[in-house]
Amino acid sequence: MVFIEQLINGLRTGSIFALIAIGYTMVYGIAKMINFAHGDIIMVGAYSLYIFIEKLNLPPVVAVIFTMLVCTILGITIEKVAYKPLRKAPSLAVLITAIGVSYLLQSVALLIFKATPIPFSTFIEVPALHIGKITISGITIVTFIVTTVCMILLTLFVNHTKIGSAMRAVSEDKQAAQLMGINVNRTISITFAIGSMLAAIAGILFISQYPSLRPTLGTLPGIKAFVAAVFGGIGSIPGAMLGGLLLGVIESLSKAYISTELADAIVFGILVLVLLVKPSGLLGKNRIEKV
Predict the structure, then answer these.
(1) How many folded domains does the chain comprise?
(2) Model pTM?
(3) CATH number of the domain that 264 lies in?
(4) CA-based, 20 to 30 A from 172: which of 26, 123, 124, 271?
C-alpha cells in the first residue's frame, strides 16, 4: 500500500514537473535557448492567483483565467523585450540575459510582497477518492485531470493545426521555414505564450499542494523541470512529459525508501547516468552539427 501511495504522489508531483518541462522544451526546440526565467513565471502565476482570490475576491474560475492571462502576457513581453533583440547573439549572452530576467522577477516580487512567506489556502475542494485501503486526495485527482487534458490538447494543437505545423517547421530549420513564408517571430512568440500559460497552470497546481507564497518558490521546481526536460530529451514534448513523470516518481520513491535528504542527489545522479549512456535523453534525437 505504501508503494502505491508513493507512486501516486510521485505521479502527481511529476505531472507538475511535466507541465513546466514542456515550456522549457518548446522554447528550446524552437528558439534554441534555455529560458531560465521560466520557473519564475510559476511564481508570478502563484502570486497573481493570490491577488485575484484573496485581495480582489474574484470567483476561482475567473481568477484562474486571469492568472493564465497574466503569465501569457508576461511570457510574450519577456520574449519581445529581453530575448528577441538577442536572436543572433552568442548563446552565452542569451543565457546571461535569461538568468538576469529570472533575478529581476524575483527581486520585483521581493520588493512588492517581502520575504516573509504568505500562507495561501487552496481553493480546490474536491473530496478524496477511496479505493480499498488507498486514499487519493482531491488535489491529486484534479492535478491528474488537468495535466492529462493539457497534454492531450497540446499534442493535438502541435500535430493538427496550422500554427502547430509552423512550430514544427521552425524547430527543424528556421531559415527554411522563413523561406516557405512562415512568420518565425510570431511563431516564437506563440511558443512563449503557450509555455507561460502552462507555467501558470503548473503554478496554480503547485501552490494548491504547497500553500506558501515566497519570491523564490519557482526556483526549485523550475530547476527540476529543466532536469526533467533534459532527462526526457530536451526539444521533445513527449520526452518532457515522460521525463517529468519519471522524475516525480523517482523523487517520491527515494524519499519513501531511501532518504529525504538524498532524494535530490539520487534524482540528479540518475540524470547523469542516463546522459552518459544516451546524451540526447530518453526520447531525444541525436543531431549532427555541420561545421
Answers:
(1) 1
(2) 0.88
(3) 1.10.3470
(4) 271
